UniProtKB/TrEMBL annotation:
Swiss-Prot/TrEMBL keywords: Hydrolase
Keyword match Hydrolase: yes
EC number: 3.6.-.-
Molecular-function GO terms, alphabetical: hydrolase activity
Nudix hydrolase domain segment(s): 40-174
InterPro entries (UniProt xref): Nudix_hydrolase, NUDIX_hydrolase-like_dom_sf, NUDIX_hydrolase_dom
UniProt source species: Halalkalibacter kiskunsagensis
Name assigned to this protein: NUDIX hydrolase
Keyword Hydrolase among record annotations: yes
Length: 181
């Protein structure tokens, strides 16, 4: 038995949205006392580390209202209900960058903010890209960038790349490149 487990006593739905749901749970703590937890429910997401034949990372630059600024990220998107993460990754890659692939490798999955959200991101990579056409959502506006690993590292230093999934992907690529020398 997990001695750290918190037993849910009551759940109250606060908000049901297009991207997230918010609920408040009353929980029994391991010491028998009670507390509340505010939880963001998210269907999960995919992110892709695409590398061109020239060895460049394909990134997107977009405005993020939650941050009120424009940042550079790897292509990513929300899982649709019942969608296989691999299929979602292929769809998001093509929608956002115009690149297609049939060769995706799952690197790992990770929780973005486990203190208050259940969002799980599946991170894929590919270096087998074919140029196609973008097909962005109606409310999606972004620029496509192709940068070297060194340029991406500088973007992290300059906080142009300022999100965990992209920083992780760039560091993974750096580690992999270093190991293959």
């Amino acid at each position: 038995m997990d001695h750290l487990h918190e037993k849910t006593l009551n759940t109250k739905e606060i908000y049901k949205g297009r991207v997230i749901d918010l609920q408040v749970e009353e929980v029994e703590l391991p010491n028998g006392k009670t507390s509340t937890r505010e939880i963001v429910k998210h269907p999960g997401a995919v992110a892709i580390l695409p590398i061109t034949k020239q060895g460049k990372l394909v990134l997107v630059r977009q405005f993020r209202k939650a941050l009120n600024k424009t940042i550079v990220e790897i292509p990513a998107g929300k899982l649709e209900a019942g969608e296989n993460p691999s299929d979602s990754a292929k769809r998001e890659l093509e929608e956002e960058t115009g690149y297609k692939t049939d060769q995706l490798e799952l690197l790992l999955s990770f929780y973005t903010s486990p203190g208050f959200a259940d969002e799980l991101i599946y991170l894929y990579w590919t270096d087998q890209l074919e140029k196609g056409f973008t097909n962005m959502d109606d409310d999606e506006f972004l620029d496509i960038l192709e940068v070297t690993l060194e340029e991406a590292e500088q973007m992290i230093e300059d906080q142009m790349i300022h999100d965990a999934k992209t920083v992780y992907a760039v560091q993974y690529l750096k580690m992999r490149k270093w190991e293959n020398r």
